[in-house]
Amino acid sequence: MQYTEETVKTLSSCFLQTLAPNPEPRKQAESFLKQVADQPGYGITILRLLSDPLVDAQVRQGAAVNFKNHVKYRWATPLDPDFPPALNPIQDPEKEQIKGLIVTLMLSTPPKIQSQLSEALSIMSQHDFPSKWQTLLPELVVSLRSATDYNIINGILQTSNSIFKRFRYQYKSNELFTDLKYCLDGFAAPLLEIFLKTGQVIGSSSENPAILKPALECQRLSCRIFYSLNFQELPEFFENHMAEWMGEFHKYLIYTNPHVQETDPEKTSVIDELKAAICENINLYMEKNEEEFQGYLGQFATDVWSLLMSVSISTSQDWLATTAIKFLTTVSKSVHHKLFSDPATLKQISESIVIPNVRIRDEDEELFEMNHVEYIRRDVEGSDMDTRRRIACELVKGLSTHYREQVTSMFSGYLQNMIQEYAANPAQNWKAKDCALYLIVTLAPRQASLGATGTDLVNIEQFFDSQIVPELRVQDVNSNAVLKADALKFFTTFRSQIRKQLTLELMPQLIGFLVAESNVVHSYAALCIEKLLALKDGKQLRYTAADLAPFLQPLLTNLFSALKLPESQENSYIMRCIMRVLSIADAGPFAPQCLAELTGILAEVCKNPSNPSFNHYLFEAVAALVKKACERDPEQVTVFENMLLPVFQSVLEQDVTEFAPYVFQIMAQLIESRMPPLPPNYIAFFPPLLTPILWQRQANVPGLVRLLQAYLQKAPQEINQGNQLPQVLGVFEKLVASKNTDHQGFFILNTVIENVSFEVLSPYMGQIWTILFSRLQYRSTGKFIKSLIIFASLFVVKHGPSKVIDTVNSVQPNLFLSILDNVWSPNLSSITGETEIKLCAVAASMLFTPLLEGSATPYCVKLLNSVVTLLVKPEEERVDEEQDVPDLDEVVGYTAVYAQLHNSSKAEDDPLKDVKDPKEFLAKTLGGVSSQQPGKLPSIIQGLEPSNQTALGHLCSTFRISIV
Amino acid sequence: MEGASGAHHRDPFKSSVGRVAGQRRRQQAVTVGKERRESVVRAKRLRRADPSDHGDDGSMQLAVMGDEAAYKALEESTVNAVHNLKNLLKGSPAKRIGALQTLRHLLSCTAMPPVHVAIEAGVVTLLVDCLAFGSSEEQLFEAAWCLTNIASGDLQQTCAVEPALPLLILHLGEKSAVHVVEQCAWAIGNVAGDGEVLRDVLLKQGALHSLSRHLLSPVPSLSRTAAWALSNLIKGPSPKAAMELMKIEGMVDTLVSHVSKGEEDLVVEVAWVLVYVTSMSDFHVTLLLNAGLLPPLLGCLASSEQLSLLTPVLRTLGNIVAGDNSKTDVVLSVGQSLPGGIIGVLARCLESKHRTLQKEAAWAVSNIAAGSILQKHTVFNGGVVPPLLHLLATAVFDVRKESAYCLGNLCVAPKESREQGGIILEHLIALVDGGCLPGFIALVRSPDVEAARLGLQFLELVMRGLPNGRGPKIVEKEDGISALEELQFHENDELQTMSNTLIDRYFGEEYGLEEEYGPGMDVLRGSDDSSDYPPWRQGGGLTA
């Protein structure tokens, strides 16, 4: 593509149209651009366009965004020439041209375009820098050294910062260190130069914000680059120049200047950002290079300390406060903790730094009311690592590392004071109690199993009685919502410590809070109930169906009412609680009503599935209901079907892909609980299930397989009469071809073998074996072989050994013995699983008679040896743990994950219920062979491994079998 | 196919533990940190004025160091001396030598010689002229000394010496006087200390062979300087030069004999040569061991107190045991003659107050501990555990990390063994009872991604391995859960996945409810268990 007046005109109008409000011309322009982007030279053309000052500003801006995306999707060199990428990649000569231009352009364009180009440059560098882009770093350094305009300087630093960030999270390797060394050699010295030079600028123009602010931003960026370059280990250059860096850091930590303050209290000032960046740097040094750093530690501890004394509680200083506290925390845990050993120091830290930062702020209250999702995420889901409250508590834990007793006794005292303060005037001083509850919960070691088991700070039982119970027993569930939420969180945290009797007494209160107006409160109530119901003493659930029975009706009523509260229609805490209740309680009479509620919700969420965890619990709840109800009363299946099938049908018809795997599982669950014959509406459902498109989605496969199995078990006649067996086998063939799904294919084949008569099956057997053996020949894996042995064994026990031998030999004469000797016998002993071992041992035992009759004696030695090994040796000694490599070409691309429903799991059934002990079976079978064909077995037994000979002898004597 | 019990045998995490913590680790060939060799500045050496060599002008001695005015004066004198040399270049040899001496004196009378001004004044071409064939020994010596000190400067200054390299190498020849050879070798050593580009230039010009001849010089200072220069030359990261060195006939025996008979100063330099050779070639490790390197090498370790010697010897040893198990066996068996065995000697290094020794020793131990089950037992019972636990709790960061590798390796069973779940339970229990867990949790919280991964791997061992479900409980008690949670949003994908998997598996919402609700909830949360396949007969179902 050439840069001509005409192209400029066309492209300009295109970029304008991409901004058009009208979708029609917009889409047209977009598709045109996508098309021309395939042409060589497009990137360069756009680059020229966006840098042309004569072109309209809007067009240039649009072109800049387009250029960045162009680079994003087309810069990477395709890894595999056999799999060309969806979009044409930019060719090498054009890439070189772009690399040659971009730095200069970036530094000479207006800020909005500059930021797009900087992003593009950073993407390019991820692929090419440094080895394929040797000019970049020198070019940046030359510009940095010569520039005097801080817009340009900061542009360079911004770009460099994004290039160096990868040193912060990649593992050490020679490649990474080669690159790092290259960057250090090129950039460490210029960075220090600009940092010192800018320091002088700041020192000499203390009253001019127009100079100061960009200069301070430059220092901040330099500090971030410092962080990246020092992250892996302390580089020689930085160690040699530590005094200069640290001197400057100190200067900025104590720097105050009204001219750089922000007027907007919510906006973070550039000096605070710089200080925070410095805190991160010294924290890194403290963590990783404490020896080299220790000379500076005292000064910095003092600096950070004073900083924290003066930091306000405004959100604009959150970042600064948390990074500063983190630094003190690191010091408190280090060998230099003695800096804080003075009791007066501990007291000052606690009173002036910890407690003020833990107290709830107006902003937190606002979040509680306006954005409950975010509040909950921070408050109970562990996403609070950067909040002041949490970080302040981390400091307490840090101090406790070396001063546990002092810290504990101090904080016990503070807690008492807070509770007294609250008691003096609850309405006015509620924040004191909130602070106390937050401290207790957060400082207790996190115990996932039972909630927290205790704390040194207070006596949990007493505290619960005196402070939490009254809060829960209050009449109005909507009064002081924050404290209610705190109390519920406290209850949840220490749930295992609260007596069962008291908990049950409080259940009506918990149920009441389910319909509190506050979203946080009703979510916490649901969370609390759910966690209580999951609680176990040893292996027993603490709260049983019987305990739950008296509360069941109001509990279910309130849970479903809660789902109708504003902004809680898809509240996953509540749905999870519903699932838990339905899987423990005896829903009995309430079941139809619950199901009606759940199907109603299901019909609603189908329209726009947006909350995966809510939806998962919803289906779990349905599965739990089906399971419980059908166990009690199979007649209810019909009631359930009538409610569920119409919704399921619409899920499948509207192709709601997220829900299909769930629907298949629950349908299978319904069919499994029925007695044959299946009603016609199910039979009508069957043919569409075999449509290939459904099977192409990996997430569907496990559920579909199970459903297909259910059909094969309950309606084999109907399937055969409908002439659908070839299609079923077609599914088997497709699944068995892949290493990832072959076991699924066998699930189907095994069910076919078990449920379809041999007469129906025999025309297909030759083809089935051919499919299996060619897979065996060309792409065998351990998993495949084991599956094959299990299938063949099942065939033996269901239809007799001679059918297996004949059908295999029909593929090719004498094939059976070859398979037996090369595949079956050698791998038999690696079978695992109780049912599987029994099946395979029994089937192998049944083969001896026909083998001996056919004079295939030599093959018997190997087979018998493997059977004995399988039956007597422990698994560790006979199974090699091997990892099959999955077919990678099949797992690329987006696939929805298959989500197993626990409540719809099915029990394993045993194809050989009449055989109790496979060892006995083997002994008795050999006894039979011995009496029918005497004289043959002893020589076979002679050929076994000595230990197996002994084991077999032992078996025979146990079951009083003598072999002659 | 797997049966009902199959699910419990599979553990996607185990492979990653085995892969990383259980493996031997070679030292990074590329380093960015300062080389911690304390008493000796290894890479570059300035030649200061000999004490016997009294300067002709007392005022030049710079009585007041650090005085700016005096340094200005020194710079000025240096520029003058260069001009003077230029003027005298065509003059009488005696005068020329006098001018060279003055210049050399100026370039060696302070720790920070005014190299930059000399270069700007054009000193290098003059010195190249002075190195011309047929020049007197004294002139060559003085010129080489000047170049030595110029090459001791920064990279840019060292590069300026490049035109002199062919002549410097030439004067390494057999006919040159010993003190000239030594000074040329010294200059070359300085140049070689400054990066791979210059090393390549030297190699192309044949410096390696010329230097190596002098390894066997009867003059101790010359063989020492040659060994030092060679150690700089073969540093790599490319192993090419080291390979070329070892191809020279008799080299293996020369090195081994120096280690066994040499003066301590010489052994230091030879040991550095061995550091680079053993780090780059397994094959030559075998040759060196066959030639009897170990007894004298381990002897140094047991008898010397010198940090400068112990550092390269420890690192060589660490490289040797980074090879296969059979080499480690040889080390252990030769080491039996030492008091406490080799492990006892390493334990004493771990107890040293020097960070360098602690780190090198821990690294060597971590490699032995990555070996066979027998080797692991030997390490475990050899006395290193108490110092390692102490270091893990109190040492500086990089030493803590090395110690953690040792302790982790002691608990991971070798791949071929059939230990339960890949864990050596006896070791694990002893270490946890010895109080190692807080140290590992601190690593999980550290900003270093490798240390965090190591910490996670150890927590996984503890939670999976300790009997009666004690693992998760003790991790909880040490506040490990919040440490794990801190990684849940880490920029490093692996750490993020690992911490999420661990939390889900051991502290997930279904904790304690496995009987009713299998581990399948993981799927929902995004951990990919799709490689697991359910029991053969069930299809979509899961064992109740």
TrEMBL record, chain A:
Recorded coiled-coil stretches? none
Q: What is its main location?
A: cytoplasm
Keyword annotations for this protein, in alphabetical order, are:
Cytoplasm, Nucleus, Protein transport, Transport
One Pfam family name is: CAS_CSE1
**SMART domains in the record:** IBN_N
Q: Which PROSITE patterns match?
A: IMPORTIN_B_NT (PS50166)
Q: Where is the Importin N-terminal domain?
A: 29-108
Q: Which family does it belong to?
A: Belongs to the XPO2/CSE1 family.
**Protein name per its UniProtKB record:** Importin N-terminal domain-containing protein
From TrEMBL, chain B:
For this UniProt record, the keywords arranged alphabetically read as follows: Protein transport, Repeat, Transport
- Which InterPro entries does the protein's record reference? ARM-like, ARM-type_fold, Arm_3, Armadillo, Importin_alpha
Region Disordered, as annotated, extends over: 1-59, 518-544
Instruction: Classify the source by domain of life.
Output: Eukaryota
- From start to end residue, where is composition biased (Basic and acidic residues)? 48-57
The keyword Manganese is assigned to this record: no
Q: Which SMART domains match?
A: ARM
- Does the UniProt entry include the keyword Protein transport? yes
PANTHER family xref list: IMPORTIN ALPHA
What does the similarity note say?
Belongs to the importin alpha family.
Can you say what this protein is called?
Importin subunit alpha
Record the organism: Sphagnum jensenii
